[in-house]
Request: fold
Amino acid sequence: MPETASQLNLGALDRQVAYSGEGISVRSLEENISAERDTQNGKVDELKILRERNVAIQTALADEVGKLRKFSDYLDGSATQGGIWAGFKELVSYIPGFRNIAMSKRSIEELLKQQYQISSRRVKEAAEYVDTLGRSEQDLYKEIDRINGKILEMAKNESTAVDFVLELKALVDAIESEKQTAEAGSIAFRDLEAKQDKARALLAQHSANLQLYAAAEERYVSLKDNTRKLVETIRNLRQDISQYTTAASIKLDMASAQIQAIGTAADAAVVMLELKRSLDVMTESMNATTQFVSDTQVFFRRNLDTLIHELETFDQTTTQVLDANIAESRRIEDERIAAAIDKARKHKQHAGGGAATPA
Amino acid sequence: MSEVAALQTQALREPQVTTYLGALGRALAAGRTNKAFPDRKPLEATLHALGREMHLGLYDEIYVDSRSGMPNLASFTRVLSDRTVGLESLSRLGTQAELDARREEAEVFARMGRKRRYFEALQTLELAPVDHHRVLLRRHDPGQSRASFRVELTKLLADGCYVRVVIELWQRASMWAHELVRLDAAGEVAEGTEALRGTVYRFASYDAETLFVRLHELEGVTVERVQRGMIGPVLWSIPGENTLHRVATPGGSVIARAWSEALPELAAAPAQLVVMFSSDIAAIDVRDEVSNDPLSPLLGSQLRDAEQARYRILRERHPFKVYKDRKFVATDASKPVIERVCAAAGTKNLVYRLV
Reply:
């Protein structure tokens, strides 16, 4: 190889730059981000399922609270929906000999116990959310750890790429200056040109890497922010549900004793009073659970839809950046090819027009 | 003493829960109950499901009726709800291996691992129902438009005891008769009407004699037998660190009073338990009308003279006799208390030993 000026530091041309982790490319970055997003989507899907079950529980709870209120109104004397026939049957029951016809039907104690068991199941169904959300929270904390690892890796690689790109740029400029001192078309000139091309090729490659690592770092940071928001939403939801269901459980436990007390009360007024009390307690507990269901609907409305929208926006931004990177890569490639073609044509022209220069 | 948490409700915590449930489970087996009583196995399964060995620490306490000393409605319902809700949850919880592998990661995974085991174990158990109503066809006589049925109700009573009521009756179909049981079109499957359910349910806490009379007076109905088998009340005491945990309000029966008087001696002994199994039959095939129950003499012997005549007329209308009995399962230190009460009442009752 012909000698070149000694002030040029050409070590960069042969150096193997080591980036940590797997090599980056547009495709690999896209795949990594997509994998992280799949985890987030999974958690968002879980919340969506909970939202649907929430709606189902809310409908059932509204039904059952309605039934309890009806019982309560009946005891208040404010329910006269039975109509004339119901009232007549009640009257007839006091007439000796007609007792059979007016024999009343279901036991209120039995109905209350059934209602109690249904209420207990509903509260437990709601309480199951707590552990489901707790697990999602832990899974997402792990994701945040992983993403932080990735961010660190990208930042380090970006820093390595920056140093190398600057070094290569300085070399390209230095070679350019050196070319001014060499005779155009001479062997030294050609050698300098070859080295400059190599440096430019490396510069293009590592500039692309720099852009990708910078973009990847930004995208991972954004992903982490979204994951943090999701974790916070889930944590708040879990804490609120836990509070509600604990309160509802305690009220139900109180109601159980009152329901059992109904049967032993001999005096009708006492029975009705105890019955009313237990209905009120059960209604209160169901109201508490309905309240949590309603409030979690607000949570879902405020946070879930926003999250989904932000995640979709994030996806769009990522795609745009990646597309821009791809376009830039292609443009550089095209320029290089055009420059190479241009050079080839000029060389042919030269060769056709003048004597051939020995190699 | 275990705290009274709400109306007629005591909260029992470890280690008293394990002692209480273990003793009660063993007493059920020792009681040698037959089909006249609520099924023993589901009740034993419920007691087992309430225990720490089963739920692995998911619950801190159980609720016990402060009068009857039995697990109350909240406790019965807890395991029933857990089994129903658990069946659905099992599909969402993840595998046991996954949860165990993440146990150290966070408390929620350890808890979910325990929950999974608990829910899976519950699916294998038949638990005691709070209420269970069943009607069986015994004989169908279409020629005479009548059929014989057996009605069974298992119920957790309002006083906290657990009872099975069995009624055998004939029903004749007619325009004026009150329909208690319906047969399907094939005449093979019987179903109780709401009227029957309501009546039997409401009167389940009354004695067999009252229920017999109540049903027998219905047009078209002939009752042959009414039988009640009741588990409870339970008298229990478990010494704690600085206190004696015991049933809070055992009531004013002669046995409860004798038990309360003996408590200072029992406090020095290990955990004590008395479980009562009472049976009460009003049937046309009972030979002699006798009460061998120290807590429930025959109604006729308790009435004032003014009421005796009316009662005799009522009884002459109905062809049944009454037989009452009560047996006990008791720990060693409690046995003499029971035997003294029975001797004083002039009854000869079985007192099985609880080991």
